[in-house]
Each structure stands twice: as C-alpha cells, then as structure tokens.
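User: I'm writing a short report section on ligand binding and want a predicted complex to refer to. Could you take this sequence and zinc ion and write out the structure as tokens? A short remark afterwards would be nice.
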Amino acid sequence: MGILETELAELKQCVPKVIADSVVETCVPAMVRVNIQRTKYKQMVVCFQFAPDYPKTRVLIELKSRHISEKLLDGLTKLCEEEAEKYLGKPQVLNVLRFVRKFIDENPLCCCSGEISAIKNKLIVGSDELKLRQKTSSVVLKVVQGSYIIRHNIVIPENYPDKQVSIEEKECNYPPVFRRWFMAQATEIARQCVESPAKKRPKDPPFVLKPSLEPVISFLVSEARKYADMPCKYCNKQAFPQDPKDVETDETAANYVERVYCGHIYHFKCLDTYIRTPPFQGGKKCHTCGLRIYHDRWKLTPETAEARWAHKQAKQRELDEVTDFLT
Ligand SMILES: [Zn+2]
Ligand SMILES: [Zn+2]
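Assistant: Sure. The structure tokens for the complex follow:
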C-alpha cells in the first residue's frame, strides 16, 4: 500500500473518533471530504486533494460552509495551508481537521460571521465600535451620537440562530425610561426572530426562523442615533440637552423628555399642554407622523379632555371677571 492509501485507511478509522461531530463523506485518492458539524451554523466541509508527490508537497484544501462567510473561509483556508505545511513528508489530513475543529470551538462567533461583516459595513461609523469576544461568544456594541453613548453586550448562544441572542446593558446615558425601552424592545425583536407570533392571522406567511443578531444591533444603533438630536415635536427645540449630565430625571419637570407610542419625543410640559388643548376630536395625534398619541400618563378620552378643557375655560373666565372687576 502506498503512503496515501495507508493514510486514507487510517482516516476512515480514526476521523469519526478523533474529530467530534464529523462524518467522512468521501475518502478516496482523488478526494477526501469531511463534514464537521458542531451545530447547524457551526458547520464546515473540508475537502482535500493530493498532488502525485504528496505528502512531499502540501495537500490542497478547500473549505465550504452554508453559513460561514466567504471572507472567513478564505482566511481560514490560508491558515489550514500553513498548518499542513508543518507536516510536509508526513500525513497531513488529520492535522488539518484537528485545526479546523479547534478553530470552530475557539471561535463561536463564526456562526454569525456574515452578520458581523454586514453590521461592520453598514452600521458602525465614526467612534462606534463592535468588539468581538470569542471567549464568551459575545459582541460588545458601542454607539456614540454626540455626547450620548450606549454600550451593550450581546451574547450569541451555542445553538444560534435557533435560540435568540440575549442583550445586556453595559453603559447608557439616556434617561431610565429610554434605557428600559432599548432593552425591552431589543429583547422583543430577538424573540420575534425565533418564535412564531402567538396570534396567527390566516393571511400571514408561514413563520421562518431568522438570525437575531443583525436585527437587534440595527435597532439599537438606530435608536441611539435618533434621539440625541431629535427635536420636541411641539416646540421644535432639541429635546435632550447637549450635555447628558443635564438630562432631566424629574418626571414632572417641564423639560422631562417623554417618548410617545409612535417613537417621537416631547417635553413633558409641551406634551401636557398639547394633550389638554382642543381640538380633541378623534384623539390627539403626533405632530410629525399623525399617529394617535398613546401614553400611560395621559389616559384621557377625547370626551374627558373636552370636559376638562371646558371646565378650565369656565374657571379662567370667572377669574378674568374677578380680575377685571378689581383693576
Ligand atoms: Zn418642547
Ligand atoms: Zn410621531
């Protein structure tokens, strides 16, 4: 038996034992093909071809994966070739397979490499950061808009994307009500990527599970950007102060920033004035987008608002009469 035939016979025997989660799909002198699948997305097919003077020359390596990005596969192929070159003159295949398996184990973020490149290309600009933490299978997102900063740790679970990412706030200088909104909505977006809606309408297309990292990061980036400079939709002045240290936290202060159902923001005083001033017909609508304003703090029906307004006006007339009388 030639050197190659001996190596192939050994591979058939030992690859399934030595390389976890592997299947030898082909093992002939023309080609060796091994599928390594740690999870649905942490999966790679490693193909080997041999030159006539193998193992004096390096084995030819090709990596394929449905879920790992081309860019990452190209980089990893080069590393595999360097690994194989360490074993010139000796059997190379098993060493390369060990190297690939180790890479999959030590780089859990490989399962979202495509999403990570897309996020870096489309969303991360200026002083923003997306740091990869392979050891904890997480990414740290930092978005900077003027002096407003958010920093969130996003953990990618082992069986991603079947299970959604989880989100943890590390730093955020928006006021508490905004911080809670960012967290709650990001978590909800992640959940909707993996769970079909509870109430299914007949015309809804069938539910398709999708990766949750990019949708969550897109949301956090866009929220962190939009509020820093957004004007109050009533007085048109910038709602948040230039310096986050001056953010109003007293919910009854005039400059306290309220976020209404549609996502637009108002100063507390501006929104209160607007909601308590006619016309009330059809409910109050957002100045910018025309969507109905719903807010926990103003649960007025148009009728109650109308009645209160009339009452207030009557009081004011009485007061005016008194004032007129006295002056
Ligand atoms: Zn205002
Ligand atoms: Zn609006």
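A remark for your report: The domain at 3-106 is CATH 3.10.110.10 (Ubiquitin Conjugating Enzyme). Residues 50 and 59 are 5 Å apart (CA to CA).
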